[in-house]
Structure prediction request, 518 residues.
Amino acid sequence: MLTFLRLAHIILISLRYRLDELVLSSIQHPWAHGLLKVVCLGHRPRRPRGERLRLALESLGPIFVKFGQVLSTRRDLVPQDLADELARLQDRVPPFPSEIAEAIIEEALGDSPHRLFAHFERTPVASASIAQVHFAVLHDGREVAVKVLRPEMREAIEKDLMLLRAAAGLVERLGPDGRRLKPREVVAEFDKYLHDELDLVREAANCSQLRRNFGLGTGREHLLQVPEVVWELCATQVFTMERMRGIPVSQVDRLRAAGVDIPLLARRGVEIFFMQVFTDGFFHADMHPGNIYVSDNPETLGRYIAMDFGIVGSLSEFDKNYLAQNFLAFFRRDYRRVAQLHIESGWVPAQTREEELEGAVRAVCEPYFDRPLSEISLGQVLLRLFQTSRRFNVEIQPQLVLLQKTLLNVEGMGRELDPSLDLWQTAKPFLEKWMHQRIGLQGLRQRLDQEAGQWAQMLPQIPRLVYTRLSLPDHSAAMRADLERLCRVQNHTNRLLTVLCGILAVALGVAVWALTRG
Prediction:
């Protein structure tokens, strides 16, 4: 009954914001155009379709808001006007009662927050679609932030996901355009993101890994601060971390007043991103201004502070190498190499003509190179390439879509800090150095160091294995004799079958002759 009521509510909201017109106008079929004329009754909606879709999702609640946010990252599938509007979706959600938050903490950690902490602030400081945050103080005096999952989120998500899967199946059956949008794949991707965010232990582990990557002794501690996880106060529904203080990265005037070097801050943001992607293969994938702060502490002034680790991306060695070579080929205008990389990766059908793909890539990239480098958006170039890839049936990998979304966030944040930021010039030396380290003697030495542990275990065994192998009796003569015997048997069998077939043919001929004579 509740599912039916939810479905009825969704239908009413869809009709209110004329999403029926949005769906029908996107279907390239005569009956769809005829039906569109009927539903429009001679007049079109006054608001743009992207705005109507955004308002509808906001009206449907936090799960649909989250879905719209994920959909906005799939610019390889969604038209640009819709993606731009969906990117404006905000996670501002009213907080749930403090009594419920305290009950969730007690159930998850086994005791009341007023006993677990020396002080626990009942009023939340932030509230989003998945969780809300309370400040607290530990008994040893450390200040912490306690993230609490919203109640009954899993049940609400499963109900809405069931409806989204049904809608995706319907859209997929509408025709080729519906299948091209891959609605089932998008909903499955959304499902994964949501369930990852519902497990706060996973988020705590992401935070811990990122902190280790930029911790003391790494040579990067001056770039990024990541809160320490208080593991004894973490559970699936509760995540307790060190409280971080700073200025939101979007408040440029406050940063400048605090004495932060803004151009240096913008360049360091790009460096941090490329370090995470190409050195670590593990990157914070939700780097919008709301999740990034800058320290105003005199000891760590100008250092980035990362928050919210629910969405992270990871890349294999193959992905990193592929991306680095692609970026360097762009910088050098080597479009043939870009086409070759797409074909070599297996993401383009094998029958794709290299020169045709090269021409398409050139048409995307060449207009950008006629502008000053500071005006070129690397994220937009990547976005245009994804859009162009549709006609070549390129399978866009999920980790690359997440990377493209993060790159757009980083680039936008950098340009907001410093409009003259030249992301290409900032990135190119880093990528060239990274490629040199991988391909040159230093890269060989690093790989040898990585494999040394395995070799240390295997090398002492090699003499014994060689001796054992050489000590085995030589069965080659017996095997050869067996094979010759099998061949003789097979030849004999073939001759018998030939004779039998001949006899059957003669008998059949005689029978036919006898019948015709009779």
Notes: Confidence is low (pLDDT under 50) at residues 28-39. Residues 476-517 form the longest helix (42 residues). The chain is about 60% helix and 10% strand. The first strand starts at residue 119 and ends at 120.
